[in-house]
Amino acid sequence: MQQVDKLLVHAHLFTMQGQGVGYSADGAVAIAGSMIVGVGPTPQLRSRFAPAEIIDAAGCAVLPGLIDAHMHTPLAVVRGVAQDVANWMQQALAPYTRHLTPQAMLAGTRLNILEGLRSGTTTFGDYYDPIPGWADAFDEFGVRARLTPMINALPAGGMAGWKVGALYPLDEEKGQRMIESAVSFVRDWQGAAGGRITTMLGPQGADMISADQLLQIKAGAQREGVMIHLHLAQGDREIEQMVKRYGRRTPAFLDKLGYLDEQLLGVHLTEATDEEAQLMARRGVRMALCSGSIGIIDGIVPPARPFKEAGGLVCLGSDQASGNNCNNMFNEMKLTALFNKIKYRDPTVMPAWEVLRMATIEGAQAIGLGQEVGSLEVGKKADLIVVDLTEPNLLPVLDEPVRTIVPNLVYAGTGREVRTVLVDGQILMRDGVMLTIDDRAVREQAQLEAQKVARRVAADPLHQGLALLEPMAQGQL
Amino acid sequence: MQQVDKLLVHAHLFTMQGQGVGYSADGAVAIAGSMIVGVGPTPQLRSRFAPAEIIDAAGCAVLPGLIDAHMHTPLAVVRGVAQDVANWMQQALAPYTRHLTPQAMLAGTRLNILEGLRSGTTTFGDYYDPIPGWADAFDEFGVRARLTPMINALPAGGMAGWKVGALYPLDEEKGQRMIESAVSFVRDWQGAAGGRITTMLGPQGADMISADQLLQIKAGAQREGVMIHLHLAQGDREIEQMVKRYGRRTPAFLDKLGYLDEQLLGVHLTEATDEEAQLMARRGVRMALCSGSIGIIDGIVPPARPFKEAGGLVCLGSDQASGNNCNNMFNEMKLTALFNKIKYRDPTVMPAWEVLRMATIEGAQAIGLGQEVGSLEVGKKADLIVVDLTEPNLLPVLDEPVRTIVPNLVYAGTGREVRTVLVDGQILMRDGVMLTIDDRAVREQAQLEAQKVARRVAADPLHQGLALLEPMAQGQL
C-alpha cells in the first residue's frame, strides 16, 4: 500500500481526458503532495493507497479546477460602475480608474480571487499593472496564477488629450520602461510558489505600442520562455488605429510581423472577421474568449466557432468586474454556449461538453499549462473541485440512457454548488469555508477601499461625464 | 405604537414603486399578518410600530419577491435530458414524457418549487396537466401560485401518428373534457389558501384546439374572471398549422377571433415578427418572455423589445428544466438583458433596472396580480426577499456617484445570495434554511422518481431515437 496524503472517493468523476469528458461512476483520485498519483475506480484505489485523509465525494461531481484565462482582478473593486452604457471605457470606467490607488487595486484583486475560488476557479490568468503585493496575493490564497504585467507606450496622461480619429501618440521611452519592468517581473515570479505562479509578457494592444517594441517583446518572450498575452482586435478603435498607422488590420499586421504563432494568446477577437479568426487559428494562435464581458460591453459574440473549426484552441476568460460583472467560470461556460446558439440560431452549437473542455483541458492547453493541469491524470498537479450534485438546481442526477450531469452543471450550475477546492494538493476551500485566508477581512477591505475610490470620484468634476448619472437621476439604480 | 408581526429594518430597500426601482437607504418594512402595513426609513418605522419580531437586513437588499410567470414544474424531474439537440421535443423530451407518472411529475413540481424559492421566486406561474396534489404542493410550501391546467384537443396518442406537413387531427370530445376539467379546477382553486392560489385557463396553443373551443375558453375565462395563458407563435410548426388550417398566422387569426386583449397572457412569441409583437402589445396582450429556454431550445431571442416599445407589459418565465435547465429568475433577468444586447448589438438595450422590473412589478401587472404583489407598498401582500450583498460577487456596495446594487444583482447575482424569503408575511426560508417543508425529502424524492422514469425510458425501444445517445457514445456526457 502506497502512503498518500489524500484519497478522494465515490465521485462522479470527470477526468476530461481523451476527446470527451472522461466520466466514470464511483471514481477516486489519490494525491501525494501537490501531485495526482492515482485515478480510477474507488475500490481499486482504496486497495492501492493508504491515505492520511479521505475526502468522501459521494453525491458530488469531481472535475479539474476551472481555468480563467483572462482577468483584470484589480477592477473588482469597482464592480458595477460600467454596464448598460454606450461608451463603456470613456463614459463609465475611466473616471474611476483615475482614482484607483495601489491599495484599492490590491483589495480588488483579493476580492476577485475569493470570488473565483468560491466558484471553482483554480488558475487565474491575470493581466494588469503589477501593483505591489499583486503576485503575493495569489500566493497567499494558494491558487495557481498566470500573471501578465501589461505593457503599453501610451503617454502618461492616458487618452485624455486624444481626439477621436487621430493617431494616438506613442511614448517610446515609457514603452521601454514598461518592457524592462515586465521582464524583471517575469524573472522574479516565473515558477514561484513551487511553480504555482507563472508569467507571460503582455502588450496591451498592437495599437498601443510601436512595431519595434512589439518585436522586442517577442524576443523577450522567446528568451524567457513565456507566452505573449495580447488584447487582439478588441475594438473598432484598435482596428482604425492599425489601418491608419500601418495600412493593415491587426491580424494582417501581426502576421507580417511574425507574431501569429503558438506563443500568442490573443484575447477577445471582438472585431476579427471569421476569416481573420481562422487565419490566426491556423497559425497556432490561442484565443481567449470573454463571452460575458464582450456581451455586456459591446453586445457582440466573438468568432470562437470559426476559430475552433480551423483547429484553434479556445480558453475562457471572465475579464473584469466593472462590466461583466462577475468572475465566475460557470457563468462564462453557460454564456458561451448560449450566446453562440443565438448567434448561429442553432441549438446544437457549442454543447455543454465543449464549453466544459474550454474551461478545463483545452483552456489549460491554450495558456500553455496543458502538461500540468486541466485534466485529472497521474503526473498532473492536484487542482480539482468537488461540486455538490444534490443542490436542487442540479437534481436529478441521471445516468441512463442519457447522463445529465454535464448539461446541468453548464446550464443550471451557478458556481455556488462548488463545495471543496484543491490546488497543488492543498485544500483551499472545504465545504464552502476558506482555509487559507480570512474571507471576511478580504470582503471588508474591498468594501472599504471601494468607498474611498467612490468618494474621490464623486469629488472629481470629471465624474459629471458619467453616463450612469442619468439613470441615477431617474431612480433606475 | 401599532402592534405588528414583523419589522424588517436597515435594508437597502428597492420598493419598485414609480417608474424606477424605488431605492432607499436604511429602509424598513412593517408586516401585519399577510400584509405590508408600513414602508419607510428605519428610524421612522421603529417609532411607529411595535413588532413581535425584528428582521435585521443590514448589508442586504430587500426586494419584492420575484415572479416566474411561465413554468412547467413537473418537468424538473427530467432536468438535463433535452438540450444541445436540434429537435428538442421529438428527439429528446418526448421519449421521457411518455414515462412520467403522476408521482414523478409531483416530485418534479416539488423540486422546482424548492429551486425557485431558494433563488427568490415567490410567485409561480405554472402551466401543466393538473396532476393530483399539484396545487396542494404550492399550498404546502406556502408560496404564491398562478396555476393553469393545460387544455388541448390532440388525440390521446399524442403526435405519434402525425406526419410532418399534415394538419393535426383535433379531437373535439377530448377538448371538451379538458375544458370542463380546467373550469372545474379554476372553481376549486381560484382564491384558495387565503388568496395565495389563483388560476388561469390555458389552451396549449391555438393550433392544438379548434376555433370554437378557443372561443368557449374565452367565454369561460370571462365568466370565471380569470386570464387566459397561451403558448403563442411558439414555433414554426404552430405557424404552419395555422396558415394551413385558417390561412392566417397565429396573431392575425387570434385578432380576428377577438382574442387579443388584456385578458391574454401570450407566451414565447418565438416566431412572431416585430410587427406582430407590436400589434399584440397595442391590443393589450401581455407577453411572457422565456429567454433561457428559447435560447437553449431554439437559439432565438423573442421580440420583447418591440413589444415593450409598443407599450406592452412583459413578464419573465423560466419555462421547463428539461431544456433551460434551471428555474431561477436571476438567470432569466441576466439572460434577458444580455441576449437583447446581443440581438441588437447595443449595450444600452434592456438595462438592469428594466429586467428587474419585468421580474417584479411589471411581471405582477402582466399576470394580473399588480394590485397584490410586485412592489413593496402599504396594502400589498408581504412577498419579499432579503439578498445578502456581502457575498464576494456582489461586493462592493457603492452608493455615489453611481449606485451599483441593481446591476450587480442582475449581472453578477446567481440567486444563491437570497437569504430569506417571505410570502404572505410568512417566512418560508430563513438564512437559507427552508421552514415549511422538508428540503432533503423533496430532493431525495425527486431523485428517486427520476431514476424510475429513466429506467422505464431505457427499457422502451423508443429511446433508441434519442439524439443524445450519440454524445453518450462519444463520451461527451
Say what the CATH topology of the largest domain in chain A is.
TIM Barrel
Oligomer: homodimer
Reported CATH architecture of the largest domain in chain A: Alpha-Beta Barrel
Mean pLDDT of chain A: 97
Question: Which blocks of ≥5 consecutive residues of chain A have pLDDT under 50?
Answer: none
Coarse morphology of chain A? globular
Radius of gyration of chain A: 22 Å
Report on this structure.
The structure is a homodimer of 477-residue chains. With 477 residues, chain A is an alpha/beta fold. The first copy, chain A, folds into two domains: 124 residues, Urease, subunit C, domain 1; 301 residues, Metal-dependent hydrolases (TIM Barrel). In chain A, 38% of the residues lie in helices and 23% in strands. Chain A contains 17 helices and 17 strands. In chain A, strands 1, 2, 3, 4, 5, 14, 15, 16 and 17 form a nine-stranded mixed sheet that branches. In chain A, strands 6-7-8-9-10-11-12-13 form an eight-stranded parallel sheet. In chain A, strand 11, helix 9 and strand 12 form a beta-alpha-beta unit. In chain A, helix 3 packs parallel to helix 4, helix 5 packs parallel to helix 6 and helix 12 crosses helix 13. The first copy, chain A, is globular. The termini of chain A are far apart. The model of chain A has no long low-confidence stretch (mean pLDDT 97). The interface between A and B is large, with 94 and 95 residues.
